[in-house]
Amino acid sequence: MNLYNKYNNIPKNLLLKVKNKSGRNNGKITVRHKGGGNKFIYTNIDLFNNNYDSSLAIIIKFYLDYSRTSIIALILLLNGILKGCKKLIISTRNLKIGNIISFKSKFPLKLGSVRFLSQFPIGYTIHSIEILPGSGAKISRSLGTKSKIIYHTSKYTCIEVPSGQIKLINNKCLATMGQNSNMYRIRLRKAGHKRELNIRPTVRGIAMNPVDHPHGGGCGHSSVGLKSSKTPWGKYHYGVKTTKFKKFNKIIFNKYI
Fold first, then answer.
1. What are 49-78's pLDDT values in tens digits?
2. What is the pTM (predicted TM-score) of this model?
3. d(C-alpha 30, C-alpha 45), whole Å
4. CB 100 within 8 A of CB 112
């Protein structure tokens, strides 16, 4: 079976065969519950919108991507140095084949248009947002996600991200107008589907022996026997902060609303 048949009409330089590492680095397991999935091709998505002087593109075709939940779109640049080049982008909801999207402010603001944050009116819905100028889209890339413009300042734009956080992001960061595509994700119908997605079974700690997990041991259906649940390495599982807010406190205006 030729894996490229699924992505017909896409240039080969936008496709990359990925070797399954099964969650291992130099032979040591670094990510648990990985391995045994189907072979797949990684699609090289343009998250930077680096189109030089190209300002218009047309939607050619849509694809379901293995390596992400949202739908991707194949676009053809219509002008500039890269005229005639094809690229893959994260699609916007309600976009159709033949629609024109723009990358510069001299064109009307339509669905799928890419602009600086300062060029979006207050209250507009956006997705695929950069955190730093030129860093590539980082926020609202998953299926059906969206962020909302709250207000602008001279240097920053305040947005509400899908988690409910309020963030201040540089006005020169790029974003795409609209909501992310693929509102309704296909549910897995059997256990074998998860195995095909490179996900192996997860064993409960309470079903293990004491030597393997802090929850292990006991007779019958015994409880954990601890004040709080723990990870296999003895660290507390709940109530522990995992985000280094010192690193991101410059862009987080309010933790949650």
1. 877 677 889 999 888 887 888 889 999 998
2. 0.81
3. 26
4. no
